[in-house]
Design brief:
The structure is a single chain. The protein is of the alpha+beta class and 156 residues long. The chain has a single domain, classed as Mannose-Binding Protein A, Chain A (Roll), CATH 3.10.100. Helix content is 22%, strand content 24%. The chain has helices spanning 3-15, 43-52, 63-73, and strands at 25-27, 32-41, 56-57, 78-83, 92-93, 113-116, 122-125, 131-137. β1 and β2 (32-41) form a beta hairpin. The longest helix is centred in the first third of the chain and has 13 residues, at 3-15. The protein starts with a helix and ends in a 19-residue tail after the last strand. The protein binds 2-acetamido-2-deoxy-beta-D-glucopyranose (NAG) (3 copies). One 2-acetamido-2-deoxy-beta-D-glucopyranose binds at residues 42-45, 127-128. Residues 1-18 form the signal peptide. It comes from Lottia gigantea (Giant owl limpet). Keywords: Signal.
């Protein structure tokens, strides 16, 4: 028995994917845990539910995260953390950072809250719709730290 290998396996389980909350998917390239909640809530309540768990509604800030979530959640639809909260046509992530990347199905979007479609494209939906939602969650107890949203807060 090679205890070195066993040790490494235990280490990997303890400190990588296994340290994501149960039911979540680990995106190793970014050290992020994503969990699809299959209870249905409107956008506001979904936002609160993610925060209650120490997380945030999923921020899909680039094509790599898009591809990861598409791979894991194809064929489902759910809220992501992108909203035009003051109805000025500018969509911001749930951490108030600017949406530099987007994957909209329609241009321009018609509602104020973004959801994933089954194809992985996003549509802007009425925020009152009741849907599943995708959270980014902390990797382990008290391990969560948000990437700061540098220099791109709304200026009002
Ligand atoms: C995402 O997937 C598409 C289609 O497979 C690929 O063309 C693109 O390069 C990928 N983007 C990233 C950032 O990995
Ligand atoms: C985003 O900005 C709003 C007000 O514009 C504020 O209420 C909210 O707490 C901010 N959220 C974060 C995560 O900074
Ligand atoms: C979401 O539901 C809550 C609780 O019913 C309600 O207070 C809130 O106004 C709703 N938000 C939206 C955007 O519909």
């Amino acid at each position: 028995m090679d205890f070195g290998i066993v040790y490494h396996l235990i280490y990997l389980l303890a400190f990588t994917s296994a340290s994501c909350p149960s039911g979540s998917k680990f995106y190793q390239a970014r050290g992020l845990c994503f969990k699809l909640f299959t209870v249905s809530k409107n956008y506001t309540e979904a936002d609160i539910a993610c925060k209650d768990k120490g997380g945030i509604l999923a921020r899909i800030k680039d094509g790599a995260i898009q591809n990861f979530t598409e791979d894991k959640y194809a064929g489902k639809y759910f809220w992501i953390g992108l909203e035009d909260d003051d109805n000025d046509g500018v969509y911001m992530w749930a951490d108030n950072s600017s949406a530099m990347y987007n994957n909209w199905q329609t241009t321009p979007p018609s509602g104020r809250c973004a959801r994933y479609t089954k194809s992985g494209l996003w549509i802007a939906e009425l925020c009152s719709e009741i849907l599943w939602f995708l959270c980014e969650l902390p990797k382990g107890p008290n391990k969560w730290n948000f990437l700061p949203s540098i220099n791109n807060h709304r200026s009002h």
